[in-house]
Design goal:
five-stranded mixed β-sheet; about 375 residues; single chain; four-stranded antiparallel β-sheet; mainly beta
Length: about 375
C-alpha cells in the first residue's frame, strides 16, 4: 500500500511538513500520547490539572506551575501564589527557568510557540523568530550546562536550537529522516555535545551538538515497527549525572535503561502498575535511586529499577503529569496530577501534602 506521503507535493517542503505533522498529531492525540499535556476536561475545576513544574535552581521557596488554565508563581514554597495574566492565546505546555539567570523564565505553548519573561514572570514577550510559522507544540526546553543562552527545544515538528537565548531559532533535524514529533530531549551534563532526542518513533542521539542525529533503537523498538504511526513515544529522558553513559527513557510502552549511551537498551520496571511513563526523576548523588510517574501514581526504586514501591500516601489522584525534585534538596519533591492539583513531599516521597494554588491576580513590579 502506498505511503500517505506519496500524495504530497515533493516540491513544497513546508506543506509536506505541515500536513505530515497534522496527520501525526491526529494519531497521537487519538492514542493518548499527549493526554498528559492536552487535557480539556470541561468538568474539572480550574487549576486541578498540572502541566509543568519549574523549581528555582538555588531558592527552594520559588517555584512556577503551569496548569490547563494559567501560570502561577510562589515565593514562599507554595503557601501563597500569584497568577499571571494570560500572555498567550494558547495553553502553556511546559515551563523552564534559566539555570544561570533564574529571573528569566521560558514558556512553551500549544500552538503559540515560545514566550520569555526576563523578570520572574511579570512580563512576557514572544521569542519565535525561526519558529512561529512551523511550530505547533513546544514540549521541552533543554539548556546547555555551561552556557544557558544556548537552548534546545523539542517540538511537534522537530528539534530547534538557539544560541542567543531565544532571539533566533534554527531547526536541528539532520539525520531524523522520518518526520517525527520530538517529544523530549536531554543533554549530557559533562559533555554537552551529546544530546538525546525522544520522538514518536523511538530515540535519537547527537554527538555534535544536534548538528546531526542517529537513530538508537536497539532494544527499544524493533526496526519492523518503526513505520507505525505511533511506534513508540518517548515521553521523558533522564541522564545519570554521576555516570552519563547511563540514560533512562520513559515511554508509552515502558521504562528503558541503557548503560552505553543508547547503543543498547533494556526494558526495566516490568512490575510497575502501568507501562506509560510520563516523568522520571534521578537522585543527583545516589546512583540507582529514581522515581517515575504515570497514570498509576509515583513509584520509587533504590536499585536502578530492579524493584519498585508505590509512594503515593496523601495523593488523591494518581494520574501523574509532572514530577520535580529540589535542586539543592533531593528530599523535596513535587508532583502534578491530572485531577487534584499539586502535591509536595519533604521526605523523599514517603508522604505527600496537597499544595492548593490559591492566588490573587499578579501585579506588575
Amino acid at each position: 500500500m502506498a505511503s500517505p506521503l506519496s500524495a504530497l507535493t515533493p516540491t513544497n517542503p513546508y506543506e509536506i511538513r505541515f500536513r505530515t505533522t497534522m496527520m501525526l498529531l491526529r494519531t497521537v492525540v487519538t492514542l493518548g500520547l499527549f493526554a498528559l499535556l492536552i487535557s480539556s476536561h470541561g468538568c474539572q475545576k480550574e487549576s486541578e490539572s498540572i502541566v509543568s513544574i519549574a523549581l528555582h535552581p538555588t531558592n527552594a521557596n520559588i517555584l512556577y506551575v503551569a496548569t490547563n488554565d494559567a501560570v502561577y508563581k510562589s515565593r514562599d514554597g507554595g503557601s501563597t501564589w500569584e497568577r499571571f495574566p494570560s500572555f498567550s492565546a494558547r495553553r502553556v505546555t511546559t515551563l523552564a527557568i534559566d539555570p544561570q539567570l533564574p529571573a528569566t523564565i521560558y514558556a512553551g505553548t500549544m500552538g503559540d510557540a515560545v514566550y520569555k519573561s526576563p523578570d520572574g514572570g511579570q512580563h512576557w514577550l514572544p521569542h519565535n523568530v525561526g519558529l512561529k510559522e512551523h511550530v505547533s507544540f513546544v514540549n521541552q526546553f533543554v539548556f546547555h550546562p555551561a552556557l544557558s543562552e544556548k537552548i534546545y527545544i523539542a517540538t511537534t515538528v522537530g528539534a530547534f536550537y538557539t544560541k542567543d537565548a531565544g532571539r533566533e531559532w534554527e531547526e536541528r533535524m539532520n539525520g531524523m529522516k522520518e518526520v517525527h514529533i520530538v517529544t523530549s530531549m536531554a543533554i549530557n551534563p559533562k559533555d554537552p555535545t551529546i544530546l538525546f532526542g525522544g520522538t514518536t518513533g523511538g530515540m535519537y542521539r547527537s554527538d555534535d551538538g544536534a548538528r546531526s542525529w542517529k537513530r538508537i533503537n536497539n532494544g527499544l523498538i524493533p526496526e519492523s515497527e518503526l513505520m507505525a504511526s505511533m511506534a513508540l513515544g518517548v515521553n521523558t529522558i533522564e541522564i545519570d549525572r554521576t555516570n552519563p553513559e547511563i540514560v533512562y527513557a520513559g515511554t508509552t510502552k515502558g521504562l528503558f535503561r541503557t548503560t552505553n549511551k543508547g547503543e543498547q537498551w533494556e526494558r526495566i520496571g516490568q512490575l510497575l502498575a502501568d507501562p506509560f511513563i510520563s516523568s522520571i526523576l534521578l537522585h543527583p548523588t545516589e546512583p540507582g535511586q529514581l522515581y517515575v510517574g504515570g497514570p498509576k501514581g509515583v513509584w520509587k526504586s533504590s536499585d536502578s529499577g530492579k524493584s519498585w514501591q508505590a509512594v503515593n500516601q496523601g495523593i488523591a489522584t494518581l494520574n501523574i503529569r509532572a514530577l520535580a525534585m529540589g535542586p539543592k534538596n533531593p528530599q523535596l519533591l513535587y508532583a502534578g496530577t491530572n485531577g487534584s492539583g499539586l502535591y509536595r513531599s519533604t521526605d523523599a516521597g514517603a508522604t505527600w501534602a496537597a499544595v492548593p494554588l490559591t492566588a490573587a491576580p499578579a501585579t506588575a513590579q
